[in-house]
Amino acid sequence: MSVESTERRILSVLEEDAQASYAEIADRAEVSKPTVRKYIKKLEDEGVIVGYSADIDPKKLSGQSIAMVGIDVASERYVEATRQLSDIDAVESLYTSSGDHMLMAEVRATDGNSLAAVIEDEILELDGVTAAHPSFLQERLK
């Protein structure tokens, strides 16, 4: 088996279940536990695996609203704006995008009104941010 296919299989298991044990990953990826340990360490060191997280169903999360927010930024303010966006506590994750917006942010707040306040009072107030387009997440389907 090739190194790439071994990495792919291990990553595939982790993407399905970030809490899987080395033994579970080894069984599902059809490799040994030491192989899993070696590849996970390598992938972490290379920055391929940047963390482990839980997938949240926003509808079942009491006291919290989640939105994916498309953000447009003036090109001359891009670097500074992305740093400032990363510093906002309610911004759970921030991605560059090749779609309709330059950036996509996962924003979390206690409810819809608080989420709107974060967008209006924190995100849109940043120098260089020209627009923010929220899509409120309602139900996780997969």
From TrEMBL:
InterPro entries linked = ArsR-like_HTH, AsnC-type_HTH_dom, Dimeric_a/b-barrel, LrpA1, Tscrpt_reg_AsnC-like, Tscrpt_reg_AsnC/Lrp_C, WH-like_DNA-bd_sf, WH_DNA-bd_sf
**Domain named HTH asnC-type: which ranges?**
3-72
Give the highest taxon in the source lineage.
Answer: Archaea
What Gene3D superfamilies does this protein map onto? 3.30.70.920, Winged helix-like DNA-binding domain superfamily/Winged helix DNA-binding domain (1.10.10.10)
Keyword DNA-binding attached: yes
Keywords assigned by UniProt, alphabetized:
DNA-binding, Transcription, Transcription regulation
Q: Which Pfam families match?
A: AsnC_trans_reg, HTH_24
Where, by residue number, does the polypeptide cross the bilayer?
none
Q: Do you know which NCBIfam families this protein is assigned to?
A: TranRegLrpA1_Halo
PANTHER family named among the record's database cross-references: LEUCINE-RESPONSIVE REGULATORY PROTEIN, TRANSCRIPTIONAL REGULATOR AZLB
Q: What is this protein called?
A: Lrp/AsnC family transcriptional regulator
- Species assigned in the record: Haloarcula onubensis
